[in-house]
Amino acid sequence: MSQLGTTASTQPGKMSKARWIYIGLPLLILFTVSMIDKSNINVLLANKPFLQDLGIKDGAIKGSLSSIFLITYAIGQFGWGFVVDRIGAFKSGLIGIFFWVVAMVMGGLAESVSALFWSRSILGLSEGVLYPIALTLTAKWFPSNEQAKAQALWFNGNSLGPVIGLPIIAMVAQSYGWRESYHALGAVSLLCLIMFWVMVRNSPSSHYAVSHTEKEFIENGAGSKKELANTGEVKAVLKNPIFWMLVAVYGCISIGFYGISTFLPSYLTEAKQIPFVQSAFINAAGYGLAIIVQMSSGFWSDKIMKRAVFVGGASALIIIFLLLAMFTSSPVGAQVLTILLISVLLMPAALTMTMLHKVASPQVMGRIGGIFGCISYVLAAIGPMVVGAGSQLSGSYTGGFLVLLGFIAVPLVLCLVLMRKGY
């Protein structure tokens, strides 16, 4: 497979911006499309024709469709972490993206819940490649004083995806049918495969658009951290208590995020009596605001180099906004609070992963990122199951959402410890 040349096409003395254009931008697009692909099911769970066609009647099945993705996503991240360190982010990305195209096509052809489970499982396994390749590319392409901004950029795809995708999926499903939403997303994912092949390379030294000056800046730039581990020291990272604190923070935040986001469209339509398409736009507005929140937090955390402050603060706001949204009697107030809630849901996850760069070097980031993601997303699968089972048992979403608050309180406490340790 052609690498389109390995020498820089720009003048040796000129600073190029290849790291942002050829790495940051494609990762942003990949995370945007992947988030649309995985959250497609969240919108369709509020679509009556979809539920009727596949015979979905209770909250437990709804929660399981989200949880099966998270479980296979966790398994995928673990396996891909080792693959990425072995064959590189470039080849790994091509393989993973190809199979998530296959998964979306399968979803559009599904005739039963079991077929949909297979589609969600393959999607989880294949999309599991994303975090190992993104963390590895960020470690190799950006100096430490740019890593929070870089990760905020591509992590914003998790917000941009719903902004673009949720309203479009809702309108396509309502106007043309739910199967067509799957087929359209499969086509978009195929375009992502082509984009990745053309633009991304494993390292600055193997990229056709990197100048000598940019290469030197990346390798020796201001704030470049001392290597903390090499390829033979994965065990040393796993013995570091900070690593496990970060796993707990990210896992509990993920429990809250997936528990809330899976059921928000259904919650708004059923509990707050908000029309189906309108609920999708409310969610999209929240993710739109989240883009601003994440980029601002990434910029300021790079300035003060204190990520845990922002993670802890966002955890507190999630608890406050969720409680107020559940118990307000005002429909308008519920919509505003939902937007504010969504705006802070993803920010702590991005900055928690930025802290991961302080405990693992680029040489082991694929494996460490895979292990980190695997454990975190196994925990994340608890979220939809808690809300789904809670709504089934109590007849409302309130009980399940209240349980989620206990998990979100854990990062708030752990961040106080991380702040004292300089994170």
From TrEMBL:
Cellular compartment(s)? Cell membrane
Membrane topology listed for this record: Multi-pass membrane protein
Per the record, the domain of life is Bacteria
The record's section on InterPro entries has: MFS, MFS_dom, MFS_Na/Anion_cotransporter, MFS_trans_sf
Keyword Phosphoprotein, does the record have it? no
Q: Where is the Major facilitator superfamily (MFS) profile domain?
A: 23-423
Is Transport among this UniProt entry's keywords? yes
Q: Specify the protein name.
A: MFS transporter
- To which species is this protein native? Brevibacillus choshinensis
Q: What is the lineage of its organism?
A: Bacteria, Bacillati, Bacillota, Bacilli, Bacillales
